[in-house]
Structure formats: structure tokens, C-alpha cells
Design a protein that fits this description.
Catalytic activity: carbamoyl phosphate + L-aspartate = N-carbamoyl-L-aspartate + phosphate + H(+)
Helix content: 25-40%
Bound molecules: phosphoric acid mono(formamide)ester
Number of domains: 2
Protein name: Aspartate carbamoyltransferase
Strand content: 5-15%
EC number: 2.1.3.2
CATH class of the largest domain: Alpha Beta
InterPro entries: Asp/Orn_carbamoyltranf_P-bd, Asp/Orn_carbamoylTrfase, Asp/Orn_carbamoylTrfase_sf, Asp_carbamoyltransf, Asp_carbamoyltransf_Asp/Orn-bd
CATH superfamily of the largest domain: Aspartate/ornithine carbamoyltransferase
Pathway: Pyrimidine metabolism; UMP biosynthesis via de novo pathway; (S)-dihydroorotate from bicarbonate: step 2/3
Radius of gyration: 19 Å
């Protein structure tokens, strides 16, 4: 079987394939009846060792809309609290004969570890500071739809400049998005306070900035990220007020971008810190709720494609491209 542990493991054509596969689910999700039996009889386990609203619920909804049996394991209520190791937890889930396991974990590498211990496809729903691949895929799908609505749609993002601003150091969303956006032809600028910018982002093709105004200059998309205070240890943590002053996306700052630039945020948002409410809620510019909508379709596509081998359906796992 094949896992989805990171955008870094995908070829450009595989990213485009997953985006194309998601379109049928965007359509289904807009119908009054959203159910199909594609994954009937399959069992999907969502094992979340960290909190989540969007990712957990959208994976659950995705599995159910595809007709699978979906069960959620919340680490806080599990035997992890009694000292069970990650490997023993993985072996336990495997013994229950899940057909796909979706993992969110606070430690980078935990998803790969679990993937190496189980017999079914594993989907990374966010692992530490490493990757959040379905977030980058849903961001790409939301961006593509927003551009199509403006008559600017194309298969990829060649010529587009995307500024990602926030706590880049701790952000798995930033990492997956840099890889995904660049694979699709976009130029990516990364902006953060010096203490929250990882070293060597130039090596992966991104342009680093500490000055937010300069980073926004002429950008087509401003993607804002929150400060992940739960992952900070020893770094300088700016106060919310100070951070907003230097790095908050205000209506005035948005004017520095290209005309009609789009605003994105993976959520959860801290309104008034990294983004002002009036910007987050701009109907003609903000695609934040569209990102959430696309999250269900992308997760349906990933669950469908990754379980094709087990279901005997040609697709990604067999190297056969539709
Ligand atoms: N964007 C995202 O991963 O949100 P959740 O933490 O709510 O899942």
C-alpha cells in the first residue's frame, strides 16, 4: 500500500491527480444528498493525539460521505494516558484491521513511525513541525477555485506570488505549502520574526523576509498563520499587541499586495493578532471558509485513492493514472 505522509513524497503529477480527483467530491458535497458507497465496508480510524476541529471533523465527514465506518480515537481518552507507547498503540490499531489510519501527533516523525508498523495506508493529519499534507492540498484546491471564479484559472500557479506569514519555525502548514505551491509553479515568500524563521529556507526555494510590508509588496496571496505558543520553548514570544503591530494583516497592509489579492488562513485564527476581523471576513478577498469546504473534498479524494489497491480499483497505488 501507499501512505500519504508528506507533500515531499509526492510528484507534481500526483498532486495534480489528487486535486483533480477531489473535484467530483466538491460537486457531491454541494448536493442535498452527499452520500455514496465508494468505501462501504471499510473501517477508517482517526487517531488524534493533538487537538483539532477542522482536520478531525473533515476526515470524519469525508469517510462517512464515502460510506465507510469511521471511528475516532482521542488520545486524551485513550490508553496512551496509561503509558501505552506509540508503537503499541499502532500495533493495537493494526490488529483491529483498519483499512486506513489517519494520524495527528505532536511529534515530528510519529506518523512515519506508525506507518512503518501497520498494514494499511496511513494519512498524515499533521505531525509536529514536519508536514500537514492534506492542508496544503486543500489550500491549493481552494486557491484554484477562487482563481477560476475570477476567470484566472489554470492547472497550476505559475506566475503567482504567495506570502506566508506567521510562526514559520513551528509550522507544518508552512512546510507543506512551500512544497506544494512550488511544485505547482508559485513563488513563495516566507515572513516571520527572526526567532520564528527556520534557517535555510532559501535552500528549499523560498524567499525569507522579516519585514512584513516588504513581504506583501505585490503579492497575489497572503496566507496568515497563527503563533503556535504550545510549541514554543525558549524562543522569544512577542506579545499579541506587539505581534499585531509588526505582523498582523490589516486592511491597510493588504493594500500593499497586488490588487484583489486573496487572503488565506488554515485556522484556527487568532483574530486581532495575526489577522484583523475585517480582513478575515472580506467576502471578495478572504477564502478562509472555502478552504474549510475544500478540506472535506480533498480528504475524500485522499481516502478514496489510498484505499484503491485494497479495493482492487486501479489508481495511484498501482501507478496507473487516469
Ligand atoms: N488547519 C487545521 O489543521 O485546523 P485544526 O487544527 O482545527 O484541525
Amino acid at each position: 500500500h501507499r501512505d500519504l505522509t508528506g507533500i515531499g513524497h509526492l510528484e507534481r503529477h500526483e498532486i495534480l491527480f489528487l486535486l483533480a480527483e477531489a473535484e467530483q467530491w466538491v460537486e457531491l458535497n454541494r448536493q442535498p444528498s452527499k452520500h455514496c458507497d465508494e468505501l462501504a465496508g471499510l473501517t477508517i480510524i482517526n487517531a488524534f493525539f493533538e487537538n483539532s476541529t477542522r482536520t478531525l471533523l473533515s476526515f470524519e465527514i469525508a469517510g462517512k460521505r464515502l460510506g465507510a465506518d469511521v471511528v475516532n480515537m482521542h488520545a486524551a481518552q485513550s490508553s496512551v494516558k496509561k503509558g501505552e507507547t506509540l508503537i503499541d498503540t499502532a500495533i493495537t490499531l493494526n490488529a483491529m484491521r483498519a483499512d486506513a489510519i489517519v494520524i495527528r501527533h505532536g511529534s515530528s516523525g510519529a506518523v512515519d513511525l506508525i506507518a512503518s508498523k501497520v498494514d494499511c495506508p496511513v494519512l498524515n493529519a499533521g505531525d509536529g513541525q514536519h508536514e500537514h499534507p492534506t492542508q496544503a492540498l486543500l489550500d491549493a484546491l481552494a486557491l484554484r477555485h477562487a482563481l477560476e471564479d475570477r476567470g484566472e484559472g489554470s492547472e497550476d500557479f505559475t506566475g503567482l506570488t504567495v506570502t506566508i506569514c506567521g510562526d514559520i519555525l513551528h509550522s507544518r502548514v508552512a512546510r507543506s505549502n512551500v512544497l506544494c505551491l512550488q511544485a505547482l509553479g508559485a513563488s513563495v515568500r516566507l515572513c516571520a520574526p527572526p526567532a520564528l524563521m527556520p534557517a535555510g529556507v532559501e535552500a528549499i526555494g523560498a524567499q525569507p523576509f522579516h519585514d512584513f510590508d516588504a513581504a506583501l509588496d505585490g503579492a497575489d496571496v497572503a496566507m496568515m498563520l497563527r503563533l503556535q505558543s504550545e510549541r514554543m520553548s525558549g524562543q522569544f514570544i512577542p506579545s499579541a499587541r506587539e505581534y499585531h503591530h509588526l505582523y498582523g494583516l490589516t486592511r491597510e497592509r493588504l493594500e500593499r499586495c497586488a490588487p484583489d489579492a486573496l487572503v488565506m488562513h488554515p485556522g484556527p485564527m487568532n483574530r486581532g493578532v495575526e489577522i484583523d476581523s475585517e480582513v478575515a471576513d472580506m467576502l471578495d478577498r478572504s477564502i478562509i471558509t472555502r478552504q474549510v469546504e475544500m478540506g472535506v473534498a480533498i480528504r475524500m479524494a485522499c481516502l478514496d485513492v489510498l484505499t484503491r489497491k485494497a479495493r482492487g480499483v486501479p489508481g495511484w497505488n498501482d501507478g496507473q493514472w487516469v
